[in-house]
Write a structure and sequence with these properties.
The chain has 380 residues and is an alpha+beta fold. The chain has eleven helices and ten strands.
Length: 380
């Protein structure tokens, strides 16, 4: 069925994104995967093309639109191209709202122009070696030293961790406050005591730098507090719906694309003298995946509309996230199986999609956490 959520301006933007991928990303992506990191030039090119800071007001160099459909187009096209390493979605959709919604005027003028032109790459540091989804377990602490905070602790699995020039750190500012004793502190590249560990070796998304971060007596200026003191929990909860929707949008796009390339493959590949597509089992497999994708797409497009209108709640975002990412995982596994031995070869897109997409059910809140949120809303 024809999708109804996009207007001509979104279609034009989609063509811009495709041209950008063909020109600035795809020719270099294999090398980036070998290097374990993308080129900073790609971020500058994205800024020049107007792909960064879509929702940032124009006065700071941004696109000036809060229409999430543009972000959805970006996520879909990067997913279809198989290029998750250039993490524009993380920058725009996950970190951007913290800066536009919480920063003071002085902070906005200091950070947002670079955020939009690609000269300032961002990351957010929540996860620790001993604390993932449970914010109460965060041990990184910041002590009030009058004119600055003294930050100590470590973070892990931080996307953009190597490249980041600006890191939003979730730290404990009130020891006895539990989840409500946390604040957001912005640590900038070059700050004494801020060190990056190794670029972590993942099974997928090889071009996306993911790192350990260490903070040893880091002096964070008081003016780098983002949002309210001890208000991090509320700030994080406010922005999680968009983060989870962004992940879900990429997930359904991945599932649809995997189905497309698998349909082409089984039409061409022969077994026992006939194309695989003539086998009833293959037809049933593709029929099931196509139906699941169609049903999920209808729900996701409805969520995109709801979020664009400002009405998507945490429960439906959680539904979208767990369902779409689990579907992506199932479709990737089934499509790889239908490719046979070729599906296990990394030069085939299905193999890369299988490993690149496996993290989707984990980051942004695991499937189990999503179900817990939904269950509590129904049974509390």
């Amino acid at each position: 069925m024809k999708r109804q959520i996009f207007a001509p301006e979104h279609d034009a933007f989609r063509e811009t994104v495709r041209a950008f991928l063909a020109r600035e990303v795809l020719p270099h992506y294999e090398q980036w995967e070998k290097d374990g990191i993308v080129s900073r030039d790609a971020w500058l090119a994205a800024g020049k093309q107007g792909l960064l800071g879509l929702a940032v007001p124009e006065e700071y160099g941004g696109g000036g639109t809060d229409d999430f459909r543009y972000s959805a187009v970006l996520a879909e096209e990067f997913t279809r191209a198989g290029t998750p390493g250039l993490a524009l979605g993380l920058h725009n959709d996950i970190i951007g709202p913290y800066l536009t919604g919480l920063a003071t005027e002085e902070q906005k003028r200091r950070w947002l122009p670079g955020f939009c032109d690609g000269s300032l790459i961002t990351a957010i540091a929540m996860t620790e070696p001993g604390a993932g989804s449970d914010l109460q377990g965060i041990q990184t602490r910041a002590e009030d030293r009058g004119d600055h905070w003294l930050l100590n602790g470590s973070k892990t699995f931080i996307s953009n961790g190597i490249l980041a020039d600006l890191v939003i750190v979730v730290a404990r500012t009130t020891p006895e406050g539990g989840a409500h004793g946390l604040s957001l502190l912005v640590v900038e590249r070059g700050t004494d005591g801020f060190e990056r560990g190794r670029n972590l070796d993942k099974i997928g998304q090889k071009a996306q730098d993911t790192a350990e971060l260490f903070f040893r007596d880091v002096r964070v200026p008081k003016e780098n507090l983002l949002g309210e003191l001890n208000g991090a929990f509320g700030h994080l909860m406010t922005n999680l719906a968009q983060e989870r929707l962004s992940i879900a949008v990429a997930a359904i796009a991945a599932a649809e694309h995997l189905l497309e390339i698998t349909v082409r493959y089984v039409k061409e590949r022969e077994a026992f003298g006939r194309p695989l597509a003539t086998k009833q089992h293959i037809r049933f497999e593709t029929a099931e995946m196509a139906t699941e994708c169609a049903v999920t797409r209808a729900f996701l497009d409805r969520c995109i509309e709801e979020h664009t209108d400002g009405g998507l709640d945490a429960v439906h975002a959680s539904m979208a996230k767990w369902w779409a990412t689990e579907l992506q995982k199932r479709v990737a596994d089934r499509c790889l199986q239908l490719h046979g031995g070729y599906g296990y070869m990394t030069e085939y897109p299905v193999a890369r999609a299988f490993t690149d997409g496996r993290i989707q059910t984990i980051y942004g809140g695991t499937t189990e956490i999503m179900k817990e949120i939904i269950g509590r809303s129904l049974l509390a």
